[in-house]
Write a structure and sequence with these properties.
449 residues, alpha/beta, 31% helix, 26% strand, globular
Amino acid sequence: MEVKKFDVFVIGSGIAGQTVATNCAKAGLKVAVADKREFGGTCANRGCDPKKVLLAATEVLESAALMDGKGVNGKLEINWKKLQKFKSNFTEAVPKSTEEKLKDLGIKLYHQSPQFLDKNTLEVEGKKVQAQKIVIATGYEPRVLPIKGHKLLKNSDDFLDLKKLPKKLIYIGAGYIGMEFAHMAARAGSKVTIIDSGKRALKPFDADLVGELINYSKKIGIEFIFGAQVEKVERLRKKYKIYFKTNGKNQSLKAGLVFNTAGRVPAVSQLDLDKGVVEHNEYGIVVNSFLQNTTNENVYACGDVSDNEVPLTPLSGREGYVVSQNIIHGNTKKLNTPVVPSVVFTLPHLASVGYSEKEAKNRYKNVIVREGNAKKWFNAKRKNYPVYNYKIILNKRTQEIVGAHILSPDAAETINIFAMAINKKMTAGDIKGTIFTYPSWINDVKSMV
C-alpha cells in the first residue's frame, strides 16, 4: 500500500486545527486535515454560534415580557421553525467555506477519523499516511451515560437542530448546556425538568449567584430535581420515560424527549492513541508547556482536547497559534494563558472570572468581598429586570481585583472589564478612576468595587 507523506497532519477542523493548518501551509509545509464530521468545528457548526442565534429570540421575548404594560403591549411568542431557519443562515455555509479556505492553501482534506498505527503513521479513509508532526485538535464530545437505554438520549446537536419543540423536555445534567437549553426551551413554551446527581447546578460558579439563578429559573417554569441517580430510559409509543432514584425512592418521569447534558469528554476514542504511544488522561492529551505530547514527541495537541485547556473557543485559537509556531520554528513558544472569563448564557447571564471567594481566601491572607443585589440600580430598573447580583473579590493588601462574579442581563459583556482588570492587576481605585459611558451596564462596575 502506497504511503502518503506530509509534514503536518492535523486531526480536527475547528478553530485550533484550522489555525495550525493555515499557519503551517503558509510557511510552505505540506499539510493535511482530517475530520469525521463537517468541517468548521463545534463552535461554528453546533455550539457557540448557533446557540447564540437561538438565544437572541428568547432575549427579545424576555425583554418584551418584562416591559409588558410599561410601554410595551401585546404578547410575543417564538416560532421555533422560523427561528431554526434563521439559525441555519449562520451554519449552512460553514463546512463548505472552511473546506474551500483550506483547499486554497493546498491542504489535503480527509473526511474520516484517523487511527494511529505507530508514532508517525495513521490510517485514514483506508489509506496509510505518515507525518513528521501530528496535531490532535479533536475537541470534546458528549459524555456517554452508563445507564440502560442511553442510546435513546438526545444531545446538544439534536437540540440545536430540533424542527419542533415537544411540550415536555427532560435534561440530565445541570451544567452549562443543560441550563442554557432549558432556559431557551422554557421560554419557547416547553415544560422543562432538569435532573442532576449533585446537590446544585453549575458547580464551577459562585454558589450564591447560582442560587439566585435557580430561583429565577423556577419562576419561568423550570423544575429541578437534585441528588437523583438516573437508572434507565425507555421509549414508549409517543414519549420517553426516565427512571431515577432520589433519597432511595424510585421515581419516573415522561417527556417528549430526554437530553443528555451531563457534560463532555475529550473526543479521542476513535484515534487508537496507545498504538501511537500518545499519553492521555480523562482531561485529554497530556502535553508539556510547548503543547507537545509527553510520550510522543511527534504529536502536539491544542484546543479543548489538550489536558491543560479551559474548553473555551478564544483559547483554542491561541493554542493553535502556539503549536503552529513550535512546528515551524522548533519548540520556541510556550503557552501563556491569561485569566479567562466564562459565561453561562441563560437569561440572566451568569459570568465569572478569576478566583472564587473560597479560592481567594485560601490564597491571600486577607480579602475583601464586595457583594450585593443591584436590582434597584438604574440599569435593572429601566428594563424592569428582577435579577441583578454581583460578588467582587479584592486582595485587601494591594486592593487588586482578583475575582468577579456577576448575574445580570449584560454579565457576558460586563465580565470582560473584570477580565482585563485582573490581567492588568488593576485595583478598585483604578476602576473607580476610569470614566465609562453613562448610563451603561459597564459603568455599574465602579459601584461594584
